[in-house]
Amino acid sequence: MSIIRHYFPGNNTPEGFFSYYGYILGQREANRIICIKGGPGTGKSTFLKKVGQRLVEAGESVDFLHCSADDSSLDGIIVTDRKIAFVDGTSPHVIDPVTPGAVDYIINFGDFWNDKKIADCKEDIISYSEETSRWYRTAYHYLAAAKCIYRSLSAIHDEGVEVSEIYKLAADIIGQEYQKYDISFKSGKVKKFFATGLTWEGNISYVKSLLQNMKRIYLVNVPEGYNNSSFMNILMDGAVYRGFDVEAFYCPMDPQYKIEHLLVPDLGLAIVTTNRWHDLEPWEITGEDGELREITMIDINDYESVYFTEKNAGLLGKLGKLYAALIQEAMDALAHAKENHDIVEKMYIRNMDFEKIDKLVEKTVEEILKEV
């Protein structure tokens, strides 16, 4: 059965656009990595969608890598069983071949456009592109302001939560899930992505699509702003030190340090955090493939002092509203960025030869499927 997953390899964050594209497929792991070059509106995303869908119809498992600038667009696909990746290698996630011809190849969509007609649009393309960049900078400033509020929320919850109980909880899960496995001489590998995207359409989560092959799922409900980094890192290290590869999905508001969701594919194990920004109910992740999941519910609120929570309820409420307002302002700015980006796309679209791109889709799919 083909497995179809969705997630974001990069994201809009308080630090600007943050990329985990380097984790898509490693050089030694991959059979092929195809870097796609070309401007906006040149058909890269359409090409990726068509190739991905055709391969799914042929029974292949495919990961669809979404664009945080526009969730309806793709920045890549991975044909997982064949270890083949197609990746958009243009700004802001510039990727260039590391071992050209051995692993990495390039498809240049500039071969499919009318150079002269696009050159005639030079001034408009530059002006709208500059306006797009200005709106992105504004969005990132709002997100940076939101992160200051986020840190205040985190500080309050950190003071109220019984840290020793959280460590005991992590130890209990390790004992339950990892106890029968010895520490390995060879550590497992860690891949890093985002299950949730901060986009112009709002907060988009694909965590449900990641749980299809997971047999045991811990749903960990956390207060808004609570920093569960230590808890998740302990669980990740427990798997990695025993030689298991993991997939860590990070929080866009803290893209380098805060893991929101953790998957240990070889164990069929997932630890998923939920809150108002990425809510997930047990009934949403059971029974799709006909197999039962073992779901354990954990509520971090149970480990927080009731007195402390009540004492700070007013402040937490004010900070929560301010945080949500700043996130909304950032998303509004991202919407303005998209408006200008769409105008640039249209200038390219009307000067592209999409018949040639369709032929390339057919040729690409045929070549992949004929490989043994």
Question: Could you write a compact summary of the structure shown?
Answer:
With 372 residues, the chain is of the alpha/beta class. Helix content is 40%, strand content 23%.
Q: Structural class, from helix and strand content?
A: alpha/beta
Query: Helical amount among residues, as a percent range?
Result: 25-40%
Span between N and C termini? Answer: 18 Å
Count of β-strands: 16
User: Biggest sheet, open or closed, and with what strands and sense?
Assistant: 6 strands, mixed
What does the average pLDDT come to?
88
Stretches with pLDDT under 50, minimum 5 residues: none
Q: What percentage of the residues does DSSP assign to strands (E)? A: 15-25%
Question: Order of strands side by side in the largest beta sheet?
Answer: 1-5-6-7-4-8
Shape: globular
H/E series? EEEEHEEEEHHHEEEEHEEEEHHH
How many individual helices?
8
Specify Rg, calculated over alpha carbons.
Answer: 22 Å
Q: Can you offer a commentary on this structure?
A:
This protein is an alpha/beta fold. The protein has helices spanning 44-57, 115-120, 122-160, 163-178, 229-240, 306-311, 313-349, 354-370, and strands at residues 4-7, 10-13, 16-19, 32-37, 62-66, 74-79, 84-88, 104-108, 190-193, 196-199, 202-205, 216-221, 246-251, 254-264, 269-274, 294-299. It has a six-stranded mixed sheet, covered by helices on one side. A hairpin with a 2-residue loop joins β10 and β11 (202-205). α1 (44-57) runs parallel beside α8, α3 runs antiparallel to α7 (313-349) and α4 runs parallel beside α5. The radius of gyration is 22 Å and the shape is globular. The relative contact order is 0.17. The model has no long low-confidence stretch (mean pLDDT 88).
